[in-house]
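Researcher: Quick test of sequence recovery. Tokens follow.
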């Protein structure tokens, strides 16, 4: 019975990983990003730490990404906040979830977080819930790009026409956060 249980758990884990690799994520609209997120904040990655969890067939690598909070837009993440994601690298062994964001210390992002600690990638729409805050030159204006590096030009096109959402001049971080705050105020 114990062997059967182990085989069943290994099969379920393999299917979950295979389906995670084969998942096609439908980009959420801007309204869905804002409404579905439990937390929305701008922060800088201060630590990325991976560890093994579980035992036997249920063993997996998870990563803990800690952010220093710079600006809170929704919820109350405190002064720092850590998200937990499936995947990472330990001692040369890597587990990856296709299309999951990859974070490194120093990254500056605006995140739309949902179901942290219970979802394999706790961002609304997986990679679609992460937006990079970039600065082309020191002391220059900050702009917003999507997780794939494409400039975010029009929030109203997110999830509807991704090509149009990324065509044109990138929004400033101030304009992006203003659009989020306006959407939050309209839904209250």
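Model:
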């Amino acid at each position: 019975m114990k062997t059967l249980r182990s085989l069943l758990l290994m099969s379920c884990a393999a299917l979950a990983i295979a389906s995670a690799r084969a998942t096609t994520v439908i980009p959420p609209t801007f309204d869905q990003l804002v409404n579905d997120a439990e937390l929305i904040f701008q922060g800088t990655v201060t630590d990325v730490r991976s560890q093994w969890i579980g035992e036997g067939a249920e063993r997996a690598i998870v990563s803990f990404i800690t952010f220093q909070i710079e600006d809170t837009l929704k919820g109350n993440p405190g002064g720092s906040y850590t998200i937990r994601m499936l995947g990472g690298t330990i001692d040369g062994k890597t587990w990856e979830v296709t299309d999951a964001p990859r974070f490194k210390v120093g990254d500056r992002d605006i995140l739309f977080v949902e179901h942290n600690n219970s979802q394999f990638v706790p961002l609304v729409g997986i990679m679609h819930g992460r937006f990079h805050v970039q600065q082309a030159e020191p002391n220059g204006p900050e702009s917003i790009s999507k997780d794939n590096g494409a400039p975010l030009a029009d929030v109203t096109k997110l999830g509807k026409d991704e090509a149009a959402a990324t065509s044109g001049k990138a929004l400033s971080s101030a304009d992006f956060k203003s659009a989020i705050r306006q959407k939050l105020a309209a839904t209250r």
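The chain has one domain: 2-187.
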